[in-house]
UniProtKB/TrEMBL annotation:
Domain HTH lacI-type: 2-56
SMART domains named among the record's database cross-references: HTH_LACI
InterPro entries hit by this protein: HTH_LacI, LacI/GalR-like_sensor, Lambda_DNA-bd_dom_sf, Peripla_BP_I
Annotated SUPFAM superfamilies: lambda repressor-like DNA-binding domains, Periplasmic binding protein-like I
Name assigned to this protein: LacI family DNA-binding transcriptional regulator
Alphabetized UniProt keyword annotations: DNA-binding, Transcription, Transcription regulation
Pfam families from the UniProt entry: LacI, Peripla_BP_3
GO molecular function ontology, one term from the record: DNA binding
Top-level taxon of origin: Bacteria
Length: 331
């Protein structure tokens, strides 16, 4: 097997020069580069990624901690992040976190060297934040924010919850239900605050509206829906904290013979690709720019890695995407 030492001997340069040509060609004279590259080609030398990483003190790897794939938001964002990272010449280690496996994932990530970390799993008071800062690893959160208020790209979650609820109210609905996730996550907490604020602005007691805070897997959403249909006064509209929840609710409505939007209006938040599908056509709230939040975050992470930015604090505006799952209340 050909080594860099063989290339150096063939080209008549030192082994260090070969390493520089491969890793930092901008520091080498053009004639030397040409000589080394000719030797590499003629000897069919393939640089060793591990040896290169030792020289550069880099691994060429980004770690992504995504949310579960039953949420189409994470399907969209994972795809965008992986494609971007690969286009930049890096590899990606991907972990899919749920409510039950985060500690195991965090331990694995902290034991494995990577050049940077992008994650959507951070809880509002998560001690992982301080561990990452202490280690000096470039990292960024997307769709989440820590109480320390740095290293994040998110949508304006309070505004999103407000717009979604205000849309339902503007259609004449006054019996409204909220379904969201645990408030340890900034996303769910902010969106619920927006829900409350919209109700209060319409002089409606938010505490009088049924609200459910649950894990977001299929089984738990089914349980919540069973409770909703048994309420003494059944709501005419359901505000879901995510499109993933809204789409599952939409499916349950149709499976049990309820009309949408006839019996239930359903609105989500995120504007995932699946929501745009004509067979679903979910009314939702999403990024005003219609960009992918994961893509925006990974761009910012590379800015940090390249030392173009130090601390990212980015909150994006949102807007309503009215489609077929909401309509004016029928008296």
């Amino acid at each position: 097997m050909v080594s860099s030492k063989d290339v150096a001997k063939y080209a008549g340069v030192s082994q260090t020069t070969v390493s520089r040509v491969i890793n930092t060609p901008e520091l080498v004279k053009p004639k030397t580069i040409e000589k080394v590259m000719r030797a590499i080609e003629e000897l069919n030398y393939i640089p060793n990624d591990i040896a290169r990483s030792l020289v550069q003190q880099k691994t060429g790897t980004i770690t992504l901690i995504s949310g579960p794939l039953h949420n189409p938001f994470f399907v969209d964002s994972t795809t965008a992040i992986v494609n971007y990272v690969n286009a930049r010449g890096y590899k990606v280690h991907v972990y899919f976190g749920t409510e039950d496996n985060l500690d195991t994932i965090y331990n694995s990530v902290l034991e494995t060297k990577a050049d940077a970390i992008i994650l959507s799993s951070m809880l509002y008071t998560d001690p992982l934040f301080f561990k990452l800062e202490k280690l000096g690893i470039p990292f960024i959160m997307f769709n989440r924010k820590h109480q320390e208020n740095r290293h994040f790209v998110e949508i304006n979650n309070v505004e999103a919850g407000y717009i979604a609820t205000n849309h339902i109210l503007s259609l004449g609905h006054r019996d409204i239900c909220w379904i969201g996730g645990p408030h340890e996550m900034s996303t769910f907490y902010g969106r619920y605050k927006g829900f409350q604020k919209a109700l209060e602005d319409h002089q409606i007691n938010a505490k009088a509206m049924p609200s459910f805070f649950t894990n977001t897997n299929k089984i738990d959403i089914e349980r919540v829906f069973e409770e909703i249909v048994k309420l003494p006064k059944r709501p005419t509209a359901i505000c879901a904290a995510t499109d993933a929840i809204a789409i599952e609710i939409l499916n349950l409505c149709l499976a049990q013979g309820y009309r949408v939007p006839g019996d239930f209006n359903v609105i989500g938040i995120d504007n995932v690709e699946l929501s745009k599908h004509h067979s679903i056509a979910l009314t939702t709230v999403g990024l005003e720019s219609e960009k992918n939040l994961g893509f925006m975050a990974i761009e910012k992470l590379f800015e940090v890695m390249e030392k173009k930015s130090t601390c990212i604090q980015q909150t994006e505006s949102v807007k309503l995407f009215p489609r077929n799952t909401t309509c004016k209340k029928i008296n």
